[in-house]
Design goal:
The protein has about 200 residues and is an all-alpha fold. It has a domain at about 5-85 and about 140-195. The protein is built from 6 helices and no strands. It has helices spanning about 5-30, 40-60, 70-100, 105-110, 115-155, 160-195. α3 packs antiparallel against α5 (about 115-155). The longest helix is centred in the C-terminal third of the chain and has 43 residues, at about 115-155. The termini are far apart.
């Protein structure tokens, strides 16, 4: 009787979770094109960061043996890079909010007026937008390699593993859609309240 290798057994599920979370994060980052002129919402970037962290975690779980899944390992490092960029966006959004909320007390130390503080807040906003644009450009470059990685994993997997991957991917995508639907309800209510 052969011992069960849990990493091998669960690899399709981890790959599905990795791919679903990454694709959801990519969609949310791509949707930020519409927000370029307006405010960047901290909640959106917190959700993107959570998705990327989950994708990174499952990317690590999906690697069978170090060195044997080189492209999966490289993709895991790429996800880590994206998560760092999202942290930078969150930092800029937080700094912008801190500057805007200061009533001169924190800038009193510097001897600047509220107009100067407003310019600093705008600078943080521009930096956040620059990082978002950079991520969007990087993700457009990553689209084809990511699809190739998924195809490579599908080719090397057994038919049973591919079925498990599809089933798990469908489940995670449904969960994301349900979460998105419940998230849209408050924004729809706010839109009707403005009318």
């Amino acid at each position: 009787m052969n011992p069960i290798n849990h990493f091998e057994l669960n690899r399709p599920v981890h790959l599905a979770r990795r791919d679903a979370c990454f694709e959801r994060a990519v969609k949310l980052i791509s949707d930020q094109r519409e927000a370029q002129g307006g405010d960047l919402q901290i909640g959106d970037y917190e959700e993107i960061l959570l998705l990327l962290r989950t994708a990174r975690q499952h990317a690590h779980f999906s690697i069978r043996n170090v060195g044997r899944n080189e492209h999966d390992e490289q993709f895991s490092l790429f996800i880590n890079l994206l998560a760092g960029n999202v942290k930078a966006v969150l930092s800029m959004i937080n700094l912008k909010g801190m500057v805007e909320k200061s009533q001169g007390s924190s800038f009193g130390f510097l001897g600047v007026n509220q107009a100067s503080a407003g310019l600093q807040a705008e600078e943080y906003h521009r930096r956040a937008n620059d990082i978002v644009r950079s991520m969007q450009n990087t993700l457009s470059l990553a689209s084809e390699p990511f699809e190739n990685l998924k195809q490579e994993n599908r080719k090397t997997a057994s038919a049973e593993d591919n079925q498990r991957y599809e089933k798990a991917l469908g489940h995670f995508e449904r969960l994301a859609e349900e979460k998105q639907a419940t998230r849209r309800i408050p924004s729809i209510i706010r839109r009707f309240m403005r009318v």
